[in-house]
Amino acid sequence: MKIVVYTGFALIAFAFNSILCRMALGSGEADAASFTAVRLASGAMMLAIIAASLGKTKKAVKSGHWAAAFFLFLYAIAFSLAYLGLTAGTGALILFGSVQITMVSAALVRGDRPGGFEWIGLVAAVGGLVYLVFPGLTSPPPMASLLMASAGMAWGFYTIWGKGSKDPLADTASNFVRSVPMIAIVAAVMLPHLQITVKGFGLAALSGAVTSGLGYTVWYAALKYHTPTRTAVLQLSVPVLVAILGIMLLGEQANLRLVIAGVLILGGIGLTSVRRAAKTK
Question: Residue 43 pLDDT more than 90?
């Protein structure tokens, strides 16, 4: 049950990150650099407070890695910049397709060969995602596409790095704190173009403190329970969750295509669980 709760919370948090980002950038409440800066700084502050309250400040200072922090920073800034030029469907396909390729490729290099059910689940989940977003693909801008692909690769590597985390809170807090100077440099370079409203600041802070800071900590805690392939496929459920949240919060309409795609993606995730369940008996 703990695995389900951790994983479910993290994936819902990922989905809300997309919703909050689109709310802020789509309505002009914030630019990409400002949103990302507030997001990472808020996450760092929230996790630093939690670490201090639990007496883990010293451990957090010694934890984390600059490489992981860089992947976190690269994902966050590329994600925001890419969504300035991509539709939600196109962005989701590029992002999670890139995550998928990165993580499965890394698993193969490390010698972790997916079983038959995992391969079937992988194909089903990717097929469902393509079926969901393909009608919205209309020659996306090359630079925005490259940025989103970079975001996906960065998130894939950040997730892989987290597999070895022995203290998710300390590691995530340290990674967020280390990412702040990186986004500060970007913000300084783009200073003349920065703009953010009170509402945009609130959306970015919520994204950073809750759906990013807490969400990524829980994700790190859940990673040790999943195979690399299942970890990759699990994240393919996020576009479906985003679509559902869009219906609930943004007034978007549900249709049969969404239902069919959801069945394929969630069914694929279920198939990837068969191998792990068999191993743990």
Answer: yes
**How many Cβ atoms are within 10 Å of 37's Cβ, its own excluded?**
26
Please name which of 50, 16, 18, 3 lies closest in space to residue 174, comparing C-alpha atoms. Answer: 50
pLDDT per position as a tens digit, 236-273: 778 778 778 877 886 766 667 767 877 887 777 777 66
| Closest to 88 in 3D by CA, of 267, 241, 266 | 241
Q: Each residue of 93-102: pLDDT tens digit?
A: 778 778 877 8
Torsion of CA 76, 10, 213, 195, to 10 degrees: 40
- Which pLDDT score is estimated for 199? 95
- Could you give the CA distance from residue 199 to residue 197 in angstroms, rounded to a whole number? 5
pLDDT above 70: residue 61 = yes
134 Cβ contact list (under 8 Å, min separation 6)? 93
Rounded to an integer, what distance in angstroms lies between the CA atom of residue 255 and that of residue 229? Answer: 29
Give the angle 202-211-34 at the CA atoms, nearest 5°: 45
Tokens of 29: 């409440």
pTM for the whole structure: 0.80
Check the CA dihedral 209-240-82-160 and report its sign: positive
Reported for 107-112, long-range contacts at CB under 8 A and 24+ positions apart, including other chains, are: 107/227, 107/228, 107/229, 107/232, 110/228, 112/227, 112/228, 112/229
Using CA atoms, how far apart are residues 211 and 18, in angstroms rounded to an integer? Answer: 10
Of the pLDDT bands very low, low, confident and very high (cuts 50, 70, 90), residue 87 is low
**Which is nearest to 161 in space by CA: 171, 170, 147, 149?**
171
CA 7, 16, 272, 231: dihedral to nearest 10 degrees? -70
- Angle at which helix 66-82 crosses helix 142-162, to 10 degrees, equals 150
